[in-house]
Fold:
Amino acid sequence: MSLWINYLDQILLYAALALSLNLLLGYAGQVSVAHAAFGAIGGYTMGYTTQAHGWNFLLGTLLGMVLAFVIGTLVALPALKLSVEYLILLTLAVSSVILGLLIAIPEMGGTYGLINLPAANLFGWHLQQPEDWLLPALVSMVIVYLVCHRVGESPIGRVLKGIREDPIATQALGKNVLGYKVAVFGLTSSLAAFAGAMLAGWLRLSTPGVFGFAFSLTIFAVVIFGGMGNLAGSVLGAAIVVLLEPVLRRVVRMEAARASLVQLVVYGLALAILMRIRPQGALPEGFSLWRWMRGHRTPQARVEMAADWVPSTVQRVAEHVDDELPVAEEERRERAWHDAAVVLRTSGVGKRFGGIVAAKELDIELRRGTITALVGPNGAGKTTVFNLLTGAIAPDSGSIILNGQELIGLNPAQVARKGMVRSFQDVRLFNRLSCAQNVMLAVQEQPGENFATLVVANRRVARAEVETRAKALDWLGFVGMAEFAEIPAGALSYGQTKLISLARVLATEADVLLLDEPASGIDTKWVDTMLDLIEAVRDQGRTVCVVEHNLHVVGRLADHTYFMELGEIAAEGTIAELANTPRLAEVYFGTG
Amino acid sequence: MLAISAETFRQLTVDGFFRGCSYGLLGVGFALILGVTARFHFAYGFTYTLAAYLAFTFTFRANWPFWPSVLLGVLLSAVVGALIEAKVYRPLAANAGATALLAVFVAALGIGIAGDNLIRLFWGSETQAYYGPTKKSYEIWGTVFLNFDVWQAASAIAITLALAAMLRYTALGRRIKATRINPDLARTIGIDAERTYVICFFLGTICVGVAAIWYALKYTIDPAMGTLPVIYAFVVAFLAGTARSPIRVFATGIAVALIEQYASIWLSVQYTQTAVFVVLVGYLTYLAIRSSAFIARFKVAGP
Structure:
């Protein structure tokens, strides 16, 4: 009996470690193979302080958590900007360094590690037997579960998933990607140290073997088996991995040494096969056992109908499709543009990449309540202008003033928070998040996106979450996509993703919207819907700038147009005026 | 100051060079695989162990002469490497789309774990000695090394140069480079990218197999022998840059081994391996800092 209780202890402690890795790997998409090494920091700190200095078990654990938090944060700083393969390598190296140092420090017992640790003392209760550990292990697991759940299923978790899906798009919505990555690395390292200390306390030893690289991989496997991004899955995964060996031994009656080898073969092969047949793991992200048992299934049928749906706004538009505007109307709009207040002004903005001039002496004005268009041939530098305006690329020279404030030196997230937000030519939706979540991510100043508020102000966070969702649904309704709120963005057609992307930009409630080819590459039936929406946004008094190829689109939308070529503004005015310049005519219509 | 004689220094350098030939060869094979196919082939270590065990089995169970068993062992493990690509990674990557790297990494991890333990099940967990040709030691200028060291260096250098020449001068080399730069574009001009991947796995696994044989002769074989080499292969390939010429990767391998050797002058032996990883962490940190400008230039910038 006591043997099975031991297995149960092991499952709970493995699950605690796997849960913390899941928050990092499944939610934030940061691949780390150093998790056991952070567990080792907890295990060794607890072991050393209790054994050599007679500290209390919990105090030693706490110190380990603090140390792991500090080291985890430091690791995260370079990890931030690395792609997945470099992140794997970095965490591999960090794991080796941590274990290498632990082995090299004589006080840590060298290659033997710390053995015969004193029995853990919890407020006078000495944990000797596996039975004694059952409750503390369960409590530890539940604590880690609750912390991961609180963070993962909150607005912070949504930001983390956004970072996992597309860090650049997340940053463009005003989220401090660096801060979140560092925080989640620190937090999960600290949780790993907590679980590691518990594990060492239960084993009564802390050795390089226990917390070796192989154990990191085991924990990694537990998360994959259970399902990345599903916390209950990690508990299930721990049970599967731990119980495989005793089941082989007792049910298949295999001898002990053989069973432990076969266990590893089975779970190794299972990993490879799982990636082929069920990469999302036993319990996929968003799957809730509780809801499933009560008969709620994912709306599969609605995903299928999603692909070919034209929103209702289309019908409303169809009547006034008119490519050639009357000249009087165009002049009126140009006059309105000149009367409007300047919201954004760039002066002398330039950028060189080596010998290539990407932007040269750009003087651009965006005015309130108007639509400004940037046109020009491929490679003219139109998207580069957006990159420069939003801080994605730092200009070499010049100044960018938004509402009287200098933007040079700010990163895209800071620019977004100042009230200027962009969309992307290649859309960049968060494919595995629902449309509602895509738009909710764009809502600014959510209290639940702050770690401290998340801990202390539960009700405020919950109330704000309801509001955020309502706002998101409003904007989805505005673009005619309310029906799709719960459908993953990855299931939509291209035209639909452009609409969601517009809703996402609008939900930031930014003053200035930079739309990169909002109507390109989509079916003609969608174009009018899109143009209608953009006009509606302008009429709300927002400032819009579009990059566009299609001169008909520009002719209909633009109050003022800049013609760009080779990184320079070659001409500006109404589209009718520009159409008369020989160079634009040559670029767009050829010199027949 | 350092209490180290010129003689010790020479010995460290010579040891570092020979060890570096092994690291270099491991790195060359891994860079070929990762650089061209973008598969995070963690099961590289398993093919290392497999090559040594196969050769060992042919020599001692089948009683074959040494050289044919080594040749067959290396070739068979290279076939296994190619099969892993064709039968596991390729369908997986096609399925997983954007998350292919992680999916392949996990599958490779699984194959590595399963493979190492299959070897334990078939051949036993204990360390075994592989007696091949007679071990001889030479002494030149006060430095001591083995005949195996010389053969290892010679074969590693020969393979590296052959690969570099192949990449530079042959049609296959041009196909591999085209696939490395852009597999989709390569397909449009009629290059069979899938076949090129398999060839890269085959060639890369030959590198790892050869390194394994010399290690087995010089030391012993055991089922966990592939764990450390795969990590060194990563380190060397990444430090050199996976799209670089084999010669540069090889030189990086030697540099890593020399760092390790010289670190032992200042640090006790337990720290030397850690020193290499500290260098690696430093390098990656540098890359990350540099990449803030780097990403902005190449990822965000569009037309």
The first strand of chain B starts at residue 137 and ends at 140. Residues 32 and 204 of chain B are 6 Å apart (CA to CA). The two ends of chain B are 58 Å apart (CA to CA). Chain B touches chain A through 59 residues (CB under 8 Å).
